[in-house]
Design a protein that fits this description.
The two termini are 26 Å apart. This protein is 49% helix and 20% strand. By secondary structure, the chain is of the alpha+beta class. Strand 16 and strand 17 form a beta hairpin. About 1% of the residues have low confidence.
């Protein structure tokens, strides 16, 4: 036995040991397994992967959501329109770069006298300049640097008017990115819930979420967390403009109240008004009325809970809501958050709050925004709802902030709300909203017969193949049977490492892989038989048989692997699962059929010094 054989034998044994260790924790989870198969804790610690049964085997929840890509495009257009006016103000020298995020009202009014920005349709902006000198600032270089998704188009008969639009090919690209981002965000939220068996896949503009074996008591929470937009924004309030004071003819159930607040270092005490709605249906009533109002450009009315000394646990019918007059948009959003965690505010009796830490760019933006608006109120807005509106006492550095939840639930519900908010903030916001399209509750016994029949069919097929090989090819057949068993070990071990989900198509792919693994051994064994008939020694016949059969084995496996790649690329759901399992099986069958079987046969003829190799 030469040194090269010992090296190959070491690799062979190492692969078996690693494969077993990777698969052991999954076997440990099988109900009714013998006690001696229990995996030690050290194995579970270093090999945490596991094979999870799919929805068609275990039952569970299947949700389908449609990604609102049209609204995503409109939102991107609206953000661009907001930034366009301010960036042009910097180009014209009307605003400084520090004032671009929160421009003073007087300068903003002066800027609007020179530039008019209008939203056209769903994906276009019309911009009109008062004079040609200002229009010259809207160069293609300016657009490429700040608004790469937009093209510029002149308007006939209006030399100082331009139309900025998103071309159709870019729209399709942005919609695709919106779906990808939604799949990634939903997947992160599912992972943060600890549902490692769940799968999230995108299909056109749809997202399909499958949660095998989930506790029915968790379903409502899962739905809520998946579909929550989680758009977090930090907006400066414009208390200096008392817009609500000009609102008249209030409908029944909505009142107007006044408060004295700080509106900046130069306006430490101003009186401003806000709208209030109380009782059952207050939120809907106030939202509907606000929709009929027309606040000034770049300003908006948002709704938040009205505290009024209420305690945690107040009944829903006793809740009240109020308005806040804020800037329409902000540059500091949930996209700038690095991490989030639940903490406790001792000043509010240990009430759960959410502490957030910004990324480096977000921390700088937050510092600039708070520094430019000292002594003004800042609204912390989550999904267009004001959670709190503290006064900015000083410039806030360090990249940290705190969100006080405005929910009137009991302590446990408030803690759950804080935990859920941390999950969605850490996973990221959904730039494109989701709308439920379909929902199915699949019972664990729905496909019991199909599962049993599929498993039995695969088992019978494997056993028949093993028996045939052992009888027909004798010693070589027994070696081939060992390779089939090893192939299954390696295949399942790889599934456990990548925490793959086992489904009925996956079981079919495993059965097919066994057949292909046997096919490789048949080609090699037949080639060895031919060499033995020519009078060659067993050692030489094995070397020649493997060498000359390799190209045929590799070509046949490669063509099937290519078919699997195509199925995985264009297939969805069960088809894609079948293709992935097939490709993994091809890799493991090549390893066992070509490498491992040669190691074992070499040991038979060299280590045992077999003079006559029985190959049928």
């Amino acid at each position: 036995m030469d040194r090269a054989w010992y090296f190959r034998f070491s690799v062979f044994l190492g692969a078996i040991v690693l494969g077993w260790l990777a698969l052991w924790p999954s076997i440990d989870r099988v109900e009714g397994r013998p006690g001696w198969l229990a995996a030690p804790d050290i194995v579970k610690e270093y090999f945490p992967g596991r094979i999870s049964p799919g929805l068609d085997i275990k039952g569970g929840l299947r949700l389908m959501y449609e990604v609102d890509t049209d609204r995503y495009i409109t939102t991107q257009r609206d953000r661009a329109a907001h930034r366009l006016l301010r960036l042009l103000g910097v180009e014209l020298g009307v605003l400084t770069e520090e004032e671009a995020d929160a421009p003073p009202a007087a300068k903003l009014t002066a800027l609007r006298e020179r530039i008019t920005v209008e939203k056209v349709g769903e994906q276009a902006i019309r911009i009109t300049f008062a004079n040609a000198e200002d229009a010259a600032k809207l160069t293609r270089t300016f657009l490429r640097r700040n608004f790469p998704n937009f093209n510029r188009q002149t308007t006939s008969g209006a030399p100082n008017r331009y139309r900025l639009y998103i071309p159709e090919e870019r729209v399709l690209e942005m919609q695709g990115k919106a779906v990808e981002q939604a799949v990634r965000t939903v997947g992160n939220r599912i992972d943060n819930l600890g549902l490692r068996e769940a799968s999230v896949v995108g299909q056109d503009t749809d997202i399909i979420v499958e949660v095998p074996g989930a506790d029915p008591a968790q379903f409502d929470r899962i739905r809520s967390i998946i579909s929550r937009t989680a758009q977090l924004e930090f907006r400066v309030l414009d208390d200096a403009q008392d817009y609500v004071a000009t609102v008249t003819d209030l409908p029944e159930g909505i009142t107007k109240q006044a408060e004295t607040v700080s509106a900046g270092t130069s306006n430490p005490s101003v009186t401003t008004h806000y709208l209030v709605a109380r009782g059952a249906g207050a939120l809907t009533r106030l939202s509907d009325y606000i929709g009929t109002l027309s606040p000034p450009d770049d300003r908006t009315l948002l709704i938040g809970s009205l505290q009024e000394g209420r305690q945690v646990g107040a009944a829903h019918a006793d809740q009240a809501y109020r308005t806040y007059f804020t800037l329409a948009t902000t540059e500091v959003t949930g996209r700038h958050i690095e991490d989030a965690a639940v903490s406790f505010d001792q000043q509010q009796g240990g009430r759960p709050v959410v502490s957030v830490r910004f990324k480096s760019d977000g921390a700088e933006l937050f510092r600039q925004m708070t520094g430019a608006n000292v002594k003004k109120r800042m609204a912390i807005v989550l999904d267009d709802r004001v959670e709190s509106a503290p006064v900015i006492q000083t410039e806030i550095g360090g990249g940290r902030a705190q969100i006080t939840l405005g929910s009137y639930s009991d302590y446990n519900q408030l803690m759950q709300e804080a935990n859920d908010l941390v999950i969605v903030l850490k996973a990221g916001a959904l730039d494109a909203p989701l709308s439920p399209a379909n929902e199915q509750m699949i019972g664990p016994t729905l496909g019991a017969d199909s599962v049993q029949q599929g498993a039995n069919g695969a088992l019978v097929g494997v056993l028949l193949v093993l028996i045939f090989m052992a009888i027909y090819y004798q010693v070589a057949g027994v070696v081939a049977d060992l390779m089939v068993i090893l192939n299954l070990l390696f295949l399942l071990a790889i599934m456990a490492v990548f925490e793959a989900t086992l489904t009925l198509p996956g079981i079919a792919a495993i059965a097919l892989t066994v057949g292909m693994a046997v096919d490789a051994n048949v080609l090699i064994t037949e080639r060895i038989r031919e060499e033995l008939r020519l009078g060659k020694s067993p050692r030489s016949a094995i070397d020649q048989g493997f060498g000359r059969a390799f190209s045929s084995v590799f070509d046949s496996q490669l063509t099937t692997f290519i078919a699997g790649v195509v199925l995985a690329q264009y297939g969805t759901g069960p088809i894609k699962g079948f293709a992935v399992m097939l490709m993994i099986g091809i890799v493991t069958s090549l390893f066992t059929g070509v490498f491992c079987s040669k190691v074992v046969l070499d040991w038979v003829v060299r280590g045992l010094r077999v003079e006559r190799l029985r190959v049928g």
